[in-house]
Each structure stands twice: as C-alpha cells, then as structure tokens.
Specification:
seven-stranded parallel beta sheet; alpha/beta; single chain; about 45% helix
C-alpha cells in the first residue's frame, strides 16, 4: 500500500487493507481511498460513494443515521469483530476499536478511515494466527455466511483455514445439564456480628479503608438471615444506604457467610441490568471459584444469574433460523453470528449478558426477538435441545446455587409459581435482598397488572393456534399451537382431545392480524375486536386534553359506560370464558396424567412427562390471564372494586395508534406482593440509596429526617402486620466540597430554541462529560438535532437515546469510555447508571420531573391523602424528590469525583431541595452565571440556606 498522509497514525506504519473506508459523524465525512489518501466529502458524495462500492465503516446503522440514508450498507467492522471474537465486548467507537485491537488511537476524525482499514487487517491477521482462541466452528459458519452473501465472507475465506476434521454443529458442542437431587433445607443459624464484620473486611480487602457506615449496614443486614419465628412473618429489614456506602458488599458479607454456614440459597434482586452486571462482578469476591474458566464452577456454580425466558437464546429457534425458518438476507446473517456466539457464551443471555449489546442493533430488533422465547411457546422436553437449554440450565443451577442474582419481576413470578406448586418448594425464594428497593412498588405494579388489549389478545390467539397464514391456516413447523404440542395426549385421551379442539375453535374468535386496521375502518371481527372498537370510541369521545390530535396516548375512566359498550363487554366476557373453560378441562386431564404413577400409559416416559409439565406451566399462566380479563369485564357497569383502578386507553406514538385496551391495576400493588413474596419468605431486605423521602425542612440545612412511615407503607409490610427493622447509613462523601447544584432561572419553559442553546453552551463550557436528562422524547430529539453538529465540529461528540440506533447499555459504555462525549436520555439513564471519574462531570435536567397526571396517579394520590392525612401536593413532591435524588446520584460515585447538577427550571420549588444530600451547595442564578462557575472549574463552598431559597 502506498504511503499514507503524514499523520501520527500513518507514521507508525501499521498494515492496512487496500479497501476504501468511510467515516461519518455529526462534524463531517471522510473517505480513505485504497491508496491510503484521505479526503473530506459532503454527505451527498458519501452516499454516492457507498452506493458505488462496498466501503469499510464502523456501525453501519449509525453511519446511515448520520448521513440520513437508511438503505446504507457496506463492510461493517462490528460484524467482522463479532465473527472473529464472539462473546467479547468492545466499545463500538473508533477509540474503542483501537483499544480492543491494540492499535493507535486516532488523534482526529480524519484519521478514522485509516484506523478502520488497519483494524480490518488486524482482525484478518487474528484469523491467520495459530493461537486464535475462537477458531472452533469459524470455518463452518463462514461457509453458511458465503451462501447468505455476507459482505465480509469472500474477503475472509483466505484467512480461515479449513479444519482437518469436520467441525461439530454448535448444538452438539454445548454441555448437557444433569438432574440433581433436591437441595436439603437450609440449616438454621444465627450470624455473629463480629464474624459478619470479618467477612466484610475479607471482601473489601485487607488494608482497605474501614467504613463504619458499611460495617453497621452489614451487621444490620444479618437480621434477615435469622431463623423465622412465626409462619407468614419474615424477618424484614428496610435499609437506606447513601451513595458510596458500599451496600453491595455490605449485604453480600452476611449473605455469603449465612450461605456457607447453612447451605442455603440467597436471592439478590435488582431493577436494572447494570446493577446485575455489577453484582455478577462483585460476587466473585465472596465466591472466588465462580468464573467462566472454572469447569467445576460451570457444573455446580455458586452464583447464578436468572432472568426472564425472553432474555435467553432459544436453541430451537436458532435451529429453525439456521435451517431457513423464514430467516433470509440480513436476519439469516445475524442468526449465523449468534450461532458463533452460542458456542462461546457463558450462559446464553442475549440481553445484558456477553452478547455485545450493539450486535442486534446492526440487524434491527426482529432478529433478536425471533431467537428468544417471547410468546411462551416453549415445548420444554419436546425440544431436541432440552438437555442443553440455557434457560433450563439456569433454572436448575439456581436451585443449588449459593447466590441467585435476579430481577424484581422474576422474583415475583417465581414466588407465584412456587405457590401454585409449579416449582418445588426448595426453589422458592426464601431469603431475598431487594436492591434498588425504591423500584419495588413499580415492579409489583407491572407484575400484578391486568391488561386486555389487542396486542395481548392476539398473543393469546397465537399461543393456542400457532402462527397462521393469510388464509387463516396454521403454518408448518414446530410452533403450530396447542394441538401440536399435545398431539399424543389428544390421541390417548378423548376428553383432552375434545378440550384442545374446543380451545382452538374459541381462539379463532380472538383478534387476528390486521385487527387495528379493521377497527379503524369500523369493521371489527369478533367479540373482542368489537369491544376494543367501543373502547376506542368512548376514549376519543371523552378526551378533553387534545392529546388525541397531538399523537399522545389518551385514557378515560371505566365509569358511566353506555349500553352498547356494556353489551360488547358481556359478549367479550363470554368469548373469553369459552376459551378458558376447555383450557381448564385440559389442565385437569394433564394433572390426572401426571398423577397416574404406575398406571400411566406406555408412551409417557420421563421426557414426555417433563413436556406435559411444561405445557401445564404455560397453560396455568394463560388461564390466569383469561380469568383476570373476565374479572375486569365483569366489573364494567357495576360498582368499582376499591382494591383496583380500571380505565380505558388508546396508546399512540408519533401520531399513530398502536394498541387499544382496558387496564386494571392494584391501587396498592404491594398487597399482592406481600401475599406472594413476603408471606412465604423467611427473610427480606429492601435497600436503596433513596428508600425514604426527606421532606421536612428545618432551619438552615438541618433536620431532614427520613420519612420511614411512607417507606414502610410502600414495602408491603403493613399487609402482614409486620414492623420491619430500620437501618440508615449516610453517604461518606463530602458533598459540600464535591458537588454543587445550580438552578438556572432564565431558560423559558417551552422554548425549545432557548433549551437547546442552554444545553449546547453547557456542554461546550464543560468540554463534554455531560449527562442530559429529559422528561419527553420529543424535546430530547429537538435539542439533539439543533446542537449535535456544532458540538461535533468542536470535538465534542453527542449521543442520544431514541436518536442513535444503539442500545442504552452500549450508549452508557460509549459515554463512560470518552471524557469528551455527552449523552442525552430519559428515565432509563436516571437509575442504575454508574459512570465514575472524569467521564461524568455535569448532570443537566431540562425541567422538574413531575409525575404524569394519569388516572392511576390521581387514584393513588387520593388514597395517600386519606392514609396519611396529607395534602395532594405532598404525594407529588415525594415522587419528584425521589426522581431528582436518583438523578443526582449519577454525579458523585467515588470520593474523588467532582461535579455539578444543573436544573434548567425558572420555577424550581424550594420544597424539593431536600432531595439533594445534606450540605450540598445550592445556587439560583442565570445561565451566564452558571457558565462562569463552570469555567472557573473549582467548586465554590458555602451552600445557600433553605431560608434564602424560600425567599428567592
């Protein structure tokens, strides 16, 4: 290759491929010719170049977004990296690519195209190397990729040697799990406080700084592992631990000690996947044998991560995809790359595990959804890959693990199944630590909700009938519905066969493909679609907000319903009952088969028994859903149930309706949570940095006591008559010296131009390192569109949720990796984001995050006012303070962090200031004054008092 331009990168004489390479960002476009010469070009020229010949690029969907050319395709280095290094993550930026391949980091954007060429050469060289660790299976997958015309395939062929022996198919490489006897009941033991402290010292490391707050917190956590004294009365602890206390190791210390002494299992539940990943890392301190390279740990792991079924790769779906199964073109390429990953993955987790989060985004979401079990269609033991199933392995391993890391929703569902005897009592979560406990209420709210909508009903139809052709006939393949899964049962048992046939007939009356269009054209088909048409009619008729025209979702109370609606509701209820009744008969026949013992038919071997158990499990879930829908419809036209809030809604996004339905939520979702999760448990801890509200403002900056009454009420303890123990550990950070709150008073509310200008100036003055939090996606997109190009030209890259085609976790990784980058986002970035150090120096909130004034919010606020004899504003303020406290918690993560928290609100109420840690300086000032403080760099001491703020 001829000499490259005289840049630092070129002078190092790194080899490169003789292929043209394109780099496009908000600041411009650059193209490297095969001879190594780089030139700048316009977006139009870049599009023309990409259309003429395949170009090297990094993250093709992002480049397409930058160019405004959705049809862009080329040689994406991320795809090549995923083939060469499956199950290995890299930050998908030029900087991240350079670090991953040990190449010089580009000093400027015009050097990026040369980096891409050298990165491709480095990856090809890795394939040529004798010590390529991921060689196994590469040749076979590459042959398939050649057939699917993967752009990289022909270029890779000379570098991937054909093995001397035929390579095994990916499914034969995966280890099989073995059935194990049930784990004995945990021994009763009482932890010694000094022993807990010693274990904590061992986990934090000898010689490390001893934090008394963390030690007291760990001792308090030991309470939940004491023997339970009364049935239905678990040992319960509510513990608030400020940021920096080290609560993860604080509760892992007693948890690991108890598990070691008792032989029992501890469940730790989180709300965010980010905290799950952190727990996975930190658990290795307590269980050092846990690791992907320890074969013994793979067989009987001490630590298991559990997620919902739709997070894991379904091997049968993968087999269907590899053999055709409707996968052609780009989805077929994605399936082959997933097959590469499946041979090297630790646990098959496709969402938050070791599958790079950016890989599915290169192929759009359809490919990922089709490779997981998202519709409850698993055939369990009827699957040829059942013994190798990642989901089944995780379920069995968790019953024998010392620590199970899960999420709030899964713990609730798992506890409910144990109550219905669908899983053994030994698998029931008995000692649970709920981290991110401030989200338990919301998680329970979603888990125990009922929603009869078009999208939910069509999923029910597909579960019974299987996917259908346009003519309404079942498609061929394994997913042919209930009759295919239980064909042997139907042929053996006449009653069961009749029940399956009746269920299929009833399911034909549920909404089918095209239901939304038919309702829009006033031609609903069947009782459920007719009901949904009436829901749409009433909801639009009663809307007073104008949201229908603006494109937002609209809702109305399920009250004062007219005759046509009630008639439609009765017919829909009858239709649902016609489906539920044969399913219940079928369930009874399956129960009888399972209980038949020695009298079981000859064909019912162990594998068939497991398949029937799996069918019972899925059927129980569907019957529960149908019963909940019937109960919701039975209430229409009658008196309201004081335990529930019911309403009608039309869901819209960007002026397009996408769902219609009736909704039911518990007024207090902690009531079913208490009955399902708390009552069977022996010990439960709920912990968070923001478990309590702090609304009391005494003179100056003192006297803000935690509101434990509200925290206890939201814990579910009251429904069991429990008085949980309370613990508090203050943050060790010096917020007076490390942080500062700036309330900007001169950015007019609703002025997008002024808002964008403020964000742009703040990011420029801070030189990046800004996390911008928005309460509306529309405003986020508008601000990003106005400032991204200008900032990029100044060397300050700006990324955004709902704009960039990158998953949220990867966006945070990119932000963390580059101190000059900034990130805009919504609620998902307010919690669980851990970006310590210089990469996050400034958090900016565009306005006060008030709660959405929904029907559900109004009902719960009224209940709170009655329960605590408070005013309506107090309920809203507590929600807002919690959100602000969580957002502020992103700013200071270590004792060395420094940063500012900016709120662009001219009317920020003083009563919300107690959301910030005590001692944090607070200043109301203009944008220009705020920028001067940022330019000064050094934080200013001396917080404004609350008296001064009230006067302001």
């Amino acid at each position: 290759m001829p000499d490259s331009p005289p840049t630092d990168m070129a002078d190092r004489n790194w080899p490169a491929l003789t292929l043209p390479a394109l780099h496009a960002s908000h600041s411009g476009c650059w193209l490297a010719a095969p001879d190594g010469k780089v030139r700048g070009l316009s977006r139009g020229e870049a599009i023309m170049s990409a259309a003429e010949t395949p170009l090297l690029m990094l993250n093709a969907p992002l480049v397409a977004s930058r160019l405004g050319y959705p049809e862009l395709s080329g040689l994406d280095l991320l795809e090549l990296f995923a083939f060469v290094h499956p199950a290995r993550f890299m930050v998908p930026t030029p900087r991240g690519l350079a670090h991953a391949l040990d190449l010089p980091e580009p000093a400027s954007e015009d050097e990026v195209p040369l980096l891409l060429a050298r990165a491709a050469a480095a990856l090809f060289a890795r394939c040529d190397a004798d010590d390529w660790a991921e060689r196994e299976g590469a040749w076979s997958v590459l042959q398939s990729l050649v057939r699917h015309r993967w752009p990289w395939a022909q270029l890779l062929l000379p570098h991937v040697k054909r093995p001397e022996r035929a390579e095994r198919w990916v499914f034969s490489k995966l280890p099989e799990w073995e059935e194990r006897p049930a784990r004995p009941q945990a021994a009763h033991t009482v932890l010694d406080g000094d022993a807990v402290a010693d274990r904590l010292d061992a986990l934090t490391g000898h010689g490390s700084e001893k934090r008394e707050g963390q030690r007291d917190y760990a001792r308090a956590a030991a309470h939940v592992f004491e023997p339970r004294r009364e049935r239905g009365q678990p040992n319960m602890l509510l513990a608030e631990a400020g940021t920096g206390v080290g609560k993860t190791l604080g509760y892992l210390a007693p948890a690991s000690l108890w598990s070691q002494q008792s032989g029992g299992t501890v469940w730790v539940s989180t709300y965010t996947k980010a905290l799950q990943r952190q727990l996975r890392r930190e658990s290795r301190r307590a269980w050092p044998d846990f690791g992907p390279n320890d074969e013994a740990a793979r067989e009987t792991p001490a630590v298991v991560v559990r997620k919902g079924r739709d997070n894991y790769l379904c091997l049968l779906n993968l087999e269907d995809a590899l053999q055709g199964g409707g996968f052609t073109g780009r989805p077929a390429i994605f399936a082959q790359l997933v097959a590469r990953w499946a041979a090297f993955t630790e646990d098959g987790d496709m969402v938050g595990g070791d599958l790079p989060g950016w890989l599915p985004t290169l192929f759009r979401k359809r490919g990922l959804a089709a490779l997981t079990d998202r519709r409850g269609e698993c055939v369990y033991a009827g699957c040829p890959h059942f013994r190798r199933c990642f989901i089944e392995r995780a379920a069995r391993d968790s019953a024998h693990a010392d620590l199970v890391i899960a999420n709030h929703a899964l713990v609730m569902v798992h506890a409910a199944r144990a109550q219905h005897r669908e899983e053994g009592a030994n698998a029931r979560p008995a000692r649970i630590v709920f981290d991110e406990g401030h989200h338990l209420f919301d998680a329970a709210d979603s888990t125990f909700a009922a929603q009869l909508s078009g999208s939910e009903a069509i999923e029910m139809r597909r579960w019974v009938l299987g996917p259908e052709t346009k003519a309404g006939q079942a498609r061929s393949g394994r997913r042919r519905g209930l009759s295919a899964r239980l064909a042997d049962v139907a042929s053996y048992d006449e009653v069961a066969g009749k029940a399956i046939s009746d269920a299929r007939d009833a399911a034909m009356l549920l909404p089918a493909d095209g239901w939304l269009a038919r309702i829009g054209e006033s031609e609903p088909m069947g009782a459920i679609e007719n009901l949904l048409a009436h829901v749409r009619r009433l909801t639009h008729a009663r809307d007073e907000s104008g949201s229908g025209e603006a494109g937002y979702g609209i809702e109305t109370e399920a009250a004062d319903l007219d005759g046509p609606f009630l008639e439609a509701a009765g017919e829909a209820r009858d239709a649902l009952a016609r489906l539920r009744q044969p399913l219940m008969k079928l369930m009874a026949r399956l129960d009888a088969l399972i209980a038949s013992g020695e009298d079981a038919p000859d064909w019912m071997d162990g594998q068939t028994r497991q398949r029937i158990e799996g069918a019972r499990h899925a059927m129980s879930w569907r019957i529960d859903s149908l019963s909940a829908w019937e109960a919701l419809l039975a209430r229409m036209g009658g008196p309201a149930d004081p335990d529930f809030v019911d309403w009608l809604a039309v869901d819209r996004a960007e002026a397009r309706e996408f769902d219609i339905g009736l909704h039911r939520r518990w007024l207090d979702p902690m009531k079913p949570f208490a009955a399902t999760v708390l009552e069977p448990a022996h010990g439960v801890m709920q912990t968070s940095a923001t478990l309590c509200d702090r609304s009391a403002i005494a003179e100056g900056d003192a006297g803000r006591e935690p509101d434990w009454a509200r925290a206890v009420a939201r814990s579910g303890a009251g429904h069991l008559g429990l008085s949980p123990k309370l613990a508090e550990a203050a943050s060790p950070f010096d917020y007076a010296a490390q942080a500062e709150v700036l309330i900007v008073t001169d950015v007019p509310r609703g002025d997008i131009g002024a808002l964008a200008a403020a964000y742009g100036r703040l990011i420029e003055t801070s030189a990046g390192g800004v996390l911008g939090l928005f309460t509306a996606i529309r405003r986020l997109r508008a601000v990003h569109a106005r400032i991204a190009d200008r900032l990029a030209r100044g060397g300050l890259p700006l990324y955004a949720q709902h704009v960039d085609p990158i998953d949220t976790g990867t966006l945070v990784d990119i932000f963390r990796d580059d101190p000059r980058a900034s990130l805009l986002g919504t609620d998902a970035l307010r919690d669980g984001v851990d970006v310590p150090g210089d990469s996050l120096r400034l958090v900016v909130m565009e306005q006060v995050p008030w709660a959405k004034p929904s029907i559900l919010h109004r009902a719960r606020r009224a209940a709170h006012v009655e329960q605590f004899d408070a005013n309506r504003q107090a309920y809203d303020d507590a929600i807002v303070r919690a959100r602000i406290a969580q957002a502020f918690g992103r700013l200071i993560r270590t004792k060395d962090d420094r940063g500012r928290f900016v709120v662009l609100s001219p009317a920020f109420p003083s009563r919300l200031l107690s959301a910030f840690p005590q001692g944090t300086p607070v200043h109301r000032l203009t944008l220009d004054d705020a920028l001067q403080r940022l330019q000064g760099g050094v934080l200013c001491a001396g917080p404004a008092t609350f008296e001064e703020e009230r006067e302001a």
